[in-house]
Amino acid sequence: MPKIKYIEHNGKEHEIEVPEGWSVMEGAVKNMLPGIDADCGGACACATCHVYVDDPAFAAKIPPKTDMEETMLDFAPEVQPTSRLSCQIKVTKELDGLVVRMPESQH
């Protein structure tokens, strides 16, 4: 099972095994990690599961942002070029070792 490392804004790290087929958001929410709210439940309708994928090697393994994801990121605070919505990142075995950082706030 792929392991995803979630890093809170304060530097606290959580390494979680996430089943293939789940989203990175589901891995966080179902393990009750702080920092990812996911108010819409993963429908790409709220931008409260905003994360940063800083490693270009992993960024290349994730499908590009859709127009809907780009639009929703306009509502997220602290957006950076590496920003993604974690509900849109489907976990695959190729993402084993993925590191995502979370912004200080989702609102």
Report on the architecture of this protein.
There is one protein chain. This protein has 107 residues and is α+β, with helices and mostly antiparallel strands. The protein has helices at residues 24-29, 56-59, 67-73, and strands spanning 3-7, 13-17, 50-52, 83-85, 98-101. A three-stranded mixed sheet has the order 2-1-5. Strand 1 (3-7) and strand 2 form a beta hairpin. It is globular and about 30 Å long. The N and C termini lie far apart (31 Å).
What class, by secondary structure content?
alpha+beta
What is the tally of helical segments?
A: 3
Q: What's the overall average pLDDT, rounded? A: 95
- Name the helicity range: 10-25%
H and E string: EEHEHHEE
Given as residue ranges, the uncertain stretches (5+ residues, pLDDT < 50) are none
Mass-distribution shape = globular
From the N-terminal CA to the C-terminal CA, the straight-line distance is 31 Å
Total beta strand runs: 5
How many strands, which pairing sense, and closed or not: the largest β-sheet? 3 strands, mixed
Oligomer: single chain
Proportion of beta-strand residues: 15-25%
Taking Cα atoms only, what radius of gyration do you get, to the nearest Å? 12 Å
Q: What spatial order of strands do you see in the largest sheet?
A: 2-1-5
